[in-house]
Amino acid sequence: MSTGKIGVTSQDLFPIIKKFLYSDHDIFLREIVSNAVDATQKLKTLSSTGEFKGDLGDLKVSVAIDKEAKTITISDNGIGMTQEEIEKYINQIAFSGAEEFMDKYKDQANAIIGHFGLGFYSSFMVSDKVDIISLSHKEGAQAVKWSCEGNPEYTLEEVEKADRGTDIVMHISEDEKEFLEEGRIQDLLNKYCKFLPIEITFGKKKEWKDGKEVVTEEANLINDTTPAWTKKPSDLTEENYKDFYRQLYPMGEEPLFHIHLNVDYPFNLTGILYFPKIKNSVEIQKNKIQLYCNQVFVTDSVEGIVPEFLTLLHGVIDSPDIPLNVSRSYLQSDGNVKKISNHITKKVADSLFDIFKKDREDFENKWDDLRIFVQYGMLSEEKFYDRAKKFMLLKNTDGKYFTTEEYETIVKENQTDKEGNMICLYATNAEEQYTYIDLAKAKGYDVLLMDSQLDNHLINTLEQKTTTTKYVRVDSDVVDKLIQKDEVKASNLTEEQKNDLIPVFNSQLPSEKVNYIVAFESLGAESQPVMITQAEFMRRMKDMAAMNPGMAMYGEMPDSYNLVVNTDHALIENILSDKDDKMGANLTDVNAKLTPLFEERAQLDALKKDKKEDEVPQEEKDKMTEVQKQITEINAEREALLTGFGKDNQIVKQLIDLALLANNMLKGEELAKFVKRSVDMIK
């Protein structure tokens, strides 16, 4: 057995750092500026402990571009480094001075950013050469200059430097010269350094004067060192929260609510989350929550730290306890992440409930903009569902709002069917389904308005949670069958009359991509003569298929509707009378042909009663086949006669078009024909 050490040299590491350590090259600016901020924060810590007794002065970090020299310089007046410290922290890759400092001053150094000791080397991703010029805060220190061209070779020499602190001078390579453009650096500073705790300056402030942009003498300050989330909620007004939102999203519409996160146990977490207005579709506005670590921007892809539905929120989360990968570009899987995620979910739900209790009227006024967010959460997070059911609202077609518990109290007595199920009627469009809503209200029923894109999914979930509550769309059946309490009144038509009317109405029904089934109901003389309904199950499957690719097979199925003929209406009686007047003799002749055939078929059926198939003589089988063929042919003749009558009957066409119109299904050329026909009929 032998032991040893794996050897990793800087020559091996440089190519990895330059190509693979960071997902985006532009992160180099964040890393170098963050190091400068750390150096400044360290000096403040030493001053607070009495170890540094000098004048702190105006602590800041400055960024400067020299296009002619092709350099970017980041300067601080922080703690500085001696020659020994450069050899320790710079020449030993991944030896983190920040972590060592944190261990020593863990009770005072809460805002130190660095952790892995690799940030400085990100400068080589964009540079052919990097210089460090530093003068330590220590009394009698000698300024030194370290230079390296991105290989294991470096130089370290004594130089003159007037002021305490460190200058990082990056000599930008030819293929990275985009970073010598002022606008590019300004954008990156705004992205990564907007809220760093030490002032960051970049050149001079510009303003428009006499129609042109002029440079002022005022330093161009990049950041807000004390953003709203770092303050106590008690120190902020409602206007402060709105101002911070505008700072984050200058072009954004004003949010509905905000939640201030301020946790110090069992992990540290601060932040402010805003509820944006979400219209009547799931506008997945991801990349709107910004994740920070000690005020340093990390990412705006926060799916790992917050549940999926919370990615619809806007705002900021800041936590030093969130585990990051070595380049601080994204989250790493960790037990803390789940704890933080669960806490944020609970905090959001509890805050919404508090807002609901405190000012219900205001909550109701904002519900239409808020509901998709709440519904999304209830559908995707079980723990959120359990909390949200206390403030999730249902709205009826009269514009009144109810919790599910309140709604059950109101409708249970009148809308419970004979099976003991409470039936919640709903409409998806109050105008298009007005006729059906009106019929339901006439029966004393209440109708919910469920026009959100997620309502169909929510209905399924609500039904699973409460098995004795069913949601039924108001146009899915005739009103007497929506909530069945007694036996439905039987139709007063004979089976023969129904069989005659089926081809009559089929003759005028649209045929493209839609299936219609003619049905008969006794709805009362005052109800509509013809109505169109669609079964609840079929509609739900089609609606869900539209949002779920995994259910595409349902979306490809043709739509299927019921054309319900009201057998009590006088117009239906008139159609039957007209049919008898015009087709009576022909139908009598056809029926006369059918009668003996039906009798013969009955006799043949009687002969094979109690016999197995192989015991029936072939002669009888052949005779049955011939009789059935004749019946089929004569029935086809009969159906052709009724179809011809139906095609020529304007009342039939008018009734069907009226039913289609009531369902917003009559359009284009057919609608134009309907209008012309209506005018002709009332001339």
Automatic annotation (TrEMBL):
Pfam families, alphabetized: HATPase_c_3, HSP90
Family classification: Belongs to the heat shock protein 90 family.
Protein name: Molecular chaperone HtpG
UniProt superkingdom: Bacteria
Keywords: ATP-binding, Chaperone, Nucleotide-binding
UniProt-listed NCBIfam families: PRK05218.1
